[in-house]
Design goal:
binds pyridoxal-5'-phosphate; Rossmann fold; four-stranded parallel beta sheet; alpha/beta; 12 helices; six-stranded mixed beta sheet
C-alpha cells in the first residue's frame, strides 16, 4: 500500500564539537519513512501519484540516471500505487543490472535506455512523441520529480514543532525540496541548502524555480556550493571519512550523493563558527540510502565496513 502518513523521528546528534560550539543539532529522519519509498522522494511523489490516479492514468513515465534515487523512488511509488511505469535511463542499461536498476526492474519498472544525445532533448516534443508511439499514453514525471506538486509535498516536511529550530539544513539536487521547505519555514528561520552539483548555476536555477512557482519565502536562506567533492556523484576520501565517522558516532547512515555532503558542510561550518552559540539546527535527512548499494557496486568497496 502507498504509505499514507510519514513517520519521521527527530534524532539528536551528540558530538564533542557541538558541546564546544554550544550548538544543538537534530536530524529529521525522512530516511525511515518506508522501506521502498523514503526520504524527500516520498514527499516529492505523493501528490503527483494521486494526481495521476485522479486523471485516470494507468502508466507513468520518467527520466533519470542509472543510479538515481528518483528512478528507484518512482518505481517504488508506482509499484505501491498499482501503476505501470517506464523509466527512461540516461545512457546504457548494462547487464547485469546495477542494484538501483535491478530493484526498479523488480518493482515492475520497464527500463528504457536512452542515448545521451536524445536524453538531453527529453523535454522536446519529438522525443515525447517517440515515447508515446513506443509506450502509449503516459503521465509524465520530470527528471528528479520536481514539479509544482512535488514542491507542495515538500512543504509538508516541516511540522509545527520543527519551526522552533532557528536553522534548517537540506540537500540540493534540482532544488525542489529546498523550495518546499523554504516556502513552509517560519519567517525567523534560516534555511541552508547544500548543493551536490558543481557550479554556481545552482543559485540562479533555484531563484528561477522560486519565481516559476511564485514562491516568495519569508525567511532567510543561503546556498552552499563548496561541498560537492568534485561534482555530482563524485566523492573523495574526506567525504567517506566524514560519513563513516558520523555513522559511527550517531548510528545514522548517510548517502554518498546528498546527505553525506551536507553533513560535511555542516561540520565545516561548525568549525568556522558559522553558527552562533545557542543555535539549534534541524537537518533534513532526505534519504537516498538505496544509493549505498549502487556506490559499493560501482566503486567495489564497502561504504560502512564496520
Ligand atoms: C533527490 C534527492 C535530493 C535532491 O532533491 P531535489 O528536490 O532534487 O533538490 C536530496 N537528497 C536526497 C537523498 C535525494 O535522493
Amino acid at each position: 500500500m502507498f504509505p499514507a502518513a510519514a513517520q519521521t523521528p527527530l534524532q539528536q546528534v551528540v558530538l564533542p564539537i557541538l558541546e564546544t560550539k554550544k550548538v544543538e543539532w537534530y536530524v529529521k529522519r525522512l530516511d525511515l519513512i518506508h522501506p521502498l519509498l523514503s526520504g524527500n522522494k516520498y514527499y516529492k511523489l505523493k501528490h503527483t501519484i494521486v494526481h495521476a490516479q485522479n486523471k485516470g492514468a494507468k502508466r507513468l513515465l520518467t527520466f533519470g540516471g542509472a543510479f538515481s534515487n528518483h528512478i528507484y523512488a518512482a518505481a517504488a511509488a508506482a509499484h505501491l500505487a498499482g501503476l505501470e511505469i517506464v523509466g527512461c535511463i540516461r545512457g546504457e542499461v548494462d547487464e547485469p543490472l546495477n542494484p538501483t536498476l535491478r530493484a526498479a526492474s523488480e518493482m515492475g519498472m520497464a527500463l528504457f535506455p536512452m542515448a545521451r544525445s536524445t536524453y538531453r532533448q527529453k523535454s522536446t516534443s519529438w522525443v515525447l512523441e517517440m515515447l508515446r508511439e513506443r509506450f502509449g499514453d503516459f503521465y509524465l514525471i520530470p527528471e528528479g520529480g520536481t514539479n509544482g506538486l512535488a514542491i507542495l509535498g515538500c512543504q509538508e516536511i516541516l511540522s509545527d514543532s520543527d519551526r522552533t529550530f532557528d536553522t534548517v539544513c537540506a540537500s540540493i539536487g534540482t532544488g525542489g525540496t529546498l523550495a518546499g521547505i523554504l516556502a513552509a519555514a517560519a519567517p525567523k528561520q534560516r534555511v541552508l541548502g547544500f548543493s551536490s552539483l558543481k557550479g554556481q548555476f545552482v543559485l540562479k536555477d533555484f531563484e528561477a524555480l522560486l519565481l516559476e512557482h511564485q514562491l516568495e519565502p519569508l525567511g532567510q536562506w543561503e546556498i552552499f556550493t563548496d561541498y560537492h567533492c568534485g561534482g555530482y556523484a563524485k566523492h573523495n576520501a574526506t567525504l567517506l571519512k566524514v560519513m563513516r565517522d558520523f555513522n559511527r558516532a550517531t548510528g545514522i547512515p548517510l548517502d554518498p550523493i546528498y546527505t553525506g555532503k551536507m553533513v560535511m558542510g555542516i561540520l565545516d561550518l561548525l568549525e568556522k563558527d558559522y553558527f552562533p552559540p545557542g543555535s539549534r539546527i534541524l537537518m533534513i535527512h532526505s534519504g537516498g540510502l538505496q544509493g549505498i548499494a549502487g556506490f559499493e557496486w560501482r566503486w567495489n568497496q564497502r561504504l560502512y565496513p564496520d
